[in-house]
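Input record (one chain):
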Amino acid sequence: MGLQVVEGRKRGFVSLAAHPAGCEGMVRLQAEHARRPSGRWSGGNLLVVGASTGYGLASRIAGAFGHGMDSVGVFYGRPPSARRTASPGWYNTAAFDAMARSAGLRAFHVDGDAFSAYVLERTLETVQRELGQLDVVVYSLAAPRRTDPLTGSVYRAVLKTIGRPMVIKSVGLDDGRVHHVSLEAAAAEEIDATVAVMGGADLRRWVRALVSADLLAPEARVVAYSYIGPQVTWPVYRHGTIGRAKVDLEETCADLHDRLAVVTGGSCRVAICKSIVSQASSAIPAVPLYMSLLFRVMKEAGTHEGPIEQMVRLFDMLAADRAPATDEEGRIRLDEAEMQPEIQDEVMRRWHLVDDANLRELSDYEGFRRYFDQLFGFQVPGVDYAAPVETDVDLALVR
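The corresponding structure, as predicted from the sequence alone:
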């Protein structure tokens, strides 16, 4: 497509275009937040599976610019074409690559379906050839479907309740209208399929492969991300199909933790993160309204965080000479400010009051929408959206 003015166009929870300068601007803002002088870097090697957006991207940035870690990032991006811009993950990764290399860091990128045997094999070869053993492995995949690499079976995740249908409050991303959404109850096979996509099966496959290839350093740390949230979202989240998958992920992490403690002296833990705006979270009924209220309350309290703030804290906890604090179930809690009783009480008070007339008074709905647009490189401070921008951005990939 070359040099052009890129305009934001959305269809539901998906943007039809991404702005390369805006994506670069967001990566730069996160890098500046994470950056420490190179004299304070501890170094190390990092693998991020699901590396191009959200917590995965923030993990790679925090590891690189906070600790000087060389990295391999696995992501599923779309390069630019004659008709379309690249995906935001492509532009994010290209921006990260340029910034990492200018800082003297090594960065390698594997583009493809992380559920596939091919991508796993390419990643293992790249880690072995370019980095050696890994100190930290981050598993941060979010996908709507998965093809089992052994059987070829295709599984699709669904957003449904378990047991009985329910009606829950939400807000429209396009129109800002507070409304109620009817949630269907999932059939048994839909529950199983969602667990197959979003549960721990693929994490287990990756960790076993890394162990077999002797690519985990002594005391290497593996971390996977999850979310619990408030009870008001539990019917569709924690007690719904997604929640069932997250429980499976947590159980898998516990099993892998015990194995790694014996094999490498390392660990595998779940990090429970604070809610953030992503394509996935924006599509979950109730969650956009909850987050709009939460962001307003946490900003008023001075405790609001995005992905990079949390990942900077997490990577400080993952340092080799530290043992991260965990809850009674062995999970690292990054959501402690969100789940403070006074925060949740105020969010729930507003939840019961909010309607079309007072949405903007009680919540940070406009902030929620701005965060959503920034996922695709729009509404980023300092970017001139009226100016033409080069959309054909190169990215050196592992082949």
